[in-house]
Specification:
The structure holds 2 protein chains of 2 kinds. Chain A is an all-alpha fold. Chain A has helices at about 1-35, 40-75, 80-85, 100-115, 115-130, 135-160, 165-180, 185-195, 200-215, 220-225, 230-265. The longest helix of chain B has about 40 residues, at about 40-80. The chains are: A mainly alpha, B mainly alpha.
């Protein structure tokens, strides 16, 4: 019973999110374009599926994964737990004592990104547009690796307390330089994947991790240092997606060279 | 009929595989690292079932509703040839989908309490509320503008990396002048604005536009709208922090 009412609440809030989109689309369709939408019934069913699917998805996450994940983020950042692995009591914590936090950040970043619905959508589209050259799984794994590295670096920043803009600005410079060496086709997609990665699944868990860390590490303020993990998670996928394209290009070029070489040998 | 079930079963299996990593990670940390039992196994299993079913429905509806409508709109605008209405539409789509975004509302409220703590505004509920809603509209306007700029770029075929690089330079320069407290929030606001329903729609719109205009490559010109939508909020939020 409780689950049902929860589902209803989530369904309602999902519908509320979709209403502006529906109003804008159909308003423009009716008033400006003045042309009937092809396969209207199918499209409406599609919208209904999206809404129901998203509501079920959020309900399930809220019931099964988020409570455990949030609790875990708190427990892992608890000084008691971190001290537990040390022999001497009363020693000042070193940044390296937080290794389980970094490992957790890496693992949770990668695994939530794999399940992120909007990334799946973009990967499907990219695969379709590129005629199969960009694999759905290749892109998703590249982005997941980027988010994983980004979030674990972000937790390292919270622990050490270095200013966030040093990291972000260095990352930007890296992205701009890498852009000139990356295959042209991948660049816009790589830039997009930065913003795509962080939505329904990743943000709640990552925010819990950031706030938990910032409120337990001595000298950090939850309000100021708790933010910024999302920024890391949107920066690094750009680097890994471009890197993925560079590596695939290199492999393809090497295979081609090898083939050519073999052909020449055969001709002789 | 059995074909439908086979297809449904296959996409369910796909969703299950997408979810497996989270389950493994959380299970491993719970049992091995924290050495605690898994609480409420029944709730966990029903929750997972919901997630799998939800993801399956979402992807199914994506290909049936969201992708086609984005493309149809792009094609009709391209055929109609009215730049003005296309830009009005782009702005409304960006603004309308962002202003009601729950993640943004949460971030704006937290930003208001940061600002109050930092002494930038009065620590009254009134002042915090007006600060938060001001911030929300600022971000929504910035996303609307981002989609407009992104659409103009697709029409003109400008290379994206120069525009993004200019945006980065702006972010870096403004970081030097913006109040310390707002920087973390500003950087985060770029990532939280793009929701699960907006992303597929905007992507389909961009790709649809690029493929219905001659001389544009959907791969090079079609993507990139999301990138703008996650860059401009950073600039606007820092500007907001500097002005207030």
């Amino acid at each position: 019973m409780e689950t049902l009412s929860q589902l209803f609440t989530i369904l309602l809030s999902t519908i509320k999110d979709v209403i502006p989109i529906v109003v804008i689309i159909f308003g423009f369709q009716l008033l400006v374009i003045r042309r009937p939408i092809p396969h209207l019934k199918k499209v409406l069913f599609g919208f209904a599926y999206v809404i129901v699917g998203l509501a079920l998805f959020l309900l399930g996450l809220e019931k099964a994964l988020f409570p455990v994940g949030r609790l875990m983020a708190q427990q892992l950042t608890d000084p008691e737990f971190i001290r537990g692995s040390m022999s001497a009591v009363g020693e000042v914590l070193h940044w390296s004592d937080y290794y389980w936090v970094y490992i957790f950040a890496f693992a949770i970043g990668a695994s939530t990104t794999i399940a992120e619905p909007s990334l799946i959508a973009v990967a499907i589209k990219a695969n379709e547009v590129s005629g199969g050259a960009i694999g759905v799984w290749g892109l998703r794994l590249a982005v997941a690796l980027g988010v994983a590295v980004g979030i674990s670096l972000g937790t390292f920043r919270i622990v050490t307390g270095y200013p966030i803009h040093w990291f972000i600005i260095t990352g930007y410079i890296f992205v701009v330089i890498q852009t000139f060496f990356a295959p042209k086709l991948i660049v816009p997609l790589a830039y997009d994947s930065g913003g795509v990665t962080t939505s329904t699944v990743t943000v709640p868990l990552v925010a819990a991790l950031g706030l938990g860390l910032a409120s337990t590490v001595p000298g950090r303020s939850a309000l100021i240092d708790g933010f910024g993990l999302i920024a890391f998670a949107s920066l690094f996928p750009m680097i890994t997606v471009m890197g993925y394209a560079q590596i695939t290009e290199m492999v393809a070029a090497r295979a081609k060279r090898k083939q050519k070489h073999e052909e020449m040998v055969n001709e002789e | 009929m059995s074909n439908v079930f086979v297809a449904l079963g296959r996409s369910m299996a796909g969703s299950l595989r997408d979810l497996l990593p989270i389950v493994v990670v959380i299970g491993f940390f719970q049992v091995v690292v924290l050495q605690q039992s898994v609480p409420d196994l029944f709730g966990l299993l029903t929750g997972l079932l919901c997630v799998v079913a939800g993801l399956t429905f979402f992807i199914y509806g994506l290909e049936m509703g969201l992708f086609p409508i984005g493309e149809v709109l792009a094609h009709s605008f391209a055929r109609k040839g009215s730049l003005f209405w296309l830009l009005v539409f782009s702005f409304s789509l960006g603004f309308g989908t962002t202003v009601a975004e729950p993640a943004l509302i949460a971030v704006a409220a937290e930003a208001a309490s940061v600002a109050a703590e930092g002494g930038m505004i009065d620590a009254t509920e009134q002042a915090m509320k007006s600060y938060a809603s001001g911030l929300r509209y600022t971000v929504a306007v910035s996303v609307g503008l981002a989609i407009v700029i992104g659409v103009i770029r697709i029409l003109k075929g400008w290379p994206i990396h120069y525009m993004i690089a200019i945006g980065y330079v702006l972010v870096v320069v403004m970081t030097g002048f913006a109040p310390q407290e707002i920087i973390g929030i500003a950087y985060d606001s770029g990532g939280v604005t793009t929701s699960t329903i907006t992303v597929p729609l905007v992507t389909a719109l961009g790709v649809g536009l690029a493929s219905s205009i001659e001389g544009r490559n959907p791969m090079i010109d079609g993507f990139g709208l999301i990138a703008f939508a996650s860059l401009t909020p950073m600039i606007f939020v820092m500007a907001y922090g500097m002005v207030i």
